[in-house]
Amino acid sequence: MADYTFFTNPMSRGQIVRWALHEAGADYDTQIVDWQDKPQALLDANPMGKVPTLVHHHNGHDHVVTECAAICHYLAAMQAPGLMPKPEETADYFRFLFFAAGPVEQAITAHSMGWKPTEEQQGMAGFGSYERTVDALETLLLNRDYVCGERFTMADVYVGSQAVWGTDFGTLPKRDAIVAYADRCKERQAYKEAKAIDNQLIEESKNG
Q1: For the chain, how far is it from start to end, CA to CA, in angstroms?
Q2: How many CB atoms lie within 10 A of CB 23?
Q3: For residues 198 and 27, what is the distance between their CA atoms, to the nearest angstrom?
Q4: Nearest 5 degrees, angle CA 40-CA 44-CA 48?
Q5: Please, what is the Cα angle at 61 between 55 and 62, to 5 degrees?
Q6: What is the DSSP letter of 101?
Q7: What is the gyration radius of the CA atoms in the chain, in angstroms?
């Protein structure tokens, strides 16, 4: 048995976690989830039936991790200490990671669904407004190569995935700092390996 069981669908946020698994050099088995026929093993691990879900088989126990940002950090902590933040990088690491998992994710979803909070509602919405969130993301990425400066960390898998997906599919505007950051992330060997696997799975699903 591999160290990890990875429940995913190639047309999902599971692409983020596959990249993280490859960055961490993790030993994993993939369980492809059919949206219309979710396996009981997934529902037992995650009652919401959501992918990605990761099960870590460790010391005789199964440890379930869900939510992409949490899975990314967990893999770094368990498998790849070199992708963890140094003490002086910790503030940026967690700030960016949870900014992307919270306000950026919320802002993109609301914008894609056509919901624009009023001035009064912006105080209640965790992201304020789509425009403010994008401006903040752009500002955070100015004058640095990666989340923690010049060094790639696991936070870049999650933040980078948001930037790559957003600029490739139009859910984020193609501002220079965001596009340049996304392009740097796409040059990672682990990104290319993971992307190739998901692309192949997508093609296989199309061909029946």
Answers
A1: 28
A2: 26
A3: 17
A4: 95
A5: 15
A6: I
A7: 17
Residue 149: C-alpha distances to residues 37, 69, 100, 119, 139 (Å): 43, 19, 17, 34, 13
Q: Give the DSSP H or E segment for 5.
A: strand 4-8
Token readout for 136 is: 């903040």
Most distant pair of Cα atoms in the chain: their distance: 53
Structure tokens at 140: 């955070």
Q: Identify which of 9, 16, 7 has the alpha carbon closest to the alpha carbon of residue 163.
A: 16
Contact between residue 105 and residue 130 where contact means Cβ atoms under 8 Å apart: no
| Cα–Cα distance for residue pair 203/126, rounded to 1 Å | 37
- Strands of the sheet with 4-8, listed across from one edge: 28-32, 4-8, 53-58, 61-66
pLDDT exceeds 90 at position 208: no
- Residue position matching structure tokens 């999650």: 158
Amino acid residing at 199:
N
* pLDDT tens, residue by residue, 82-137: 999 999 999 999 999 999 999 999 999 999 999 999 988 988 888 999 999 999 99
The pLDDT tens digits of the residues spanning 8-35 come to 999 999 999 999 999 999 999 999 999 9
Asked if 202 and 11 touch (Cβ cutoff 8 Å), the reply is yes
Q: Quote the pLDDT of residue 123.
A: 86
For 19, the token pair is 């990249």
Mean pLDDT of 41-64: 97
State residue 207's pLDDT score: 81
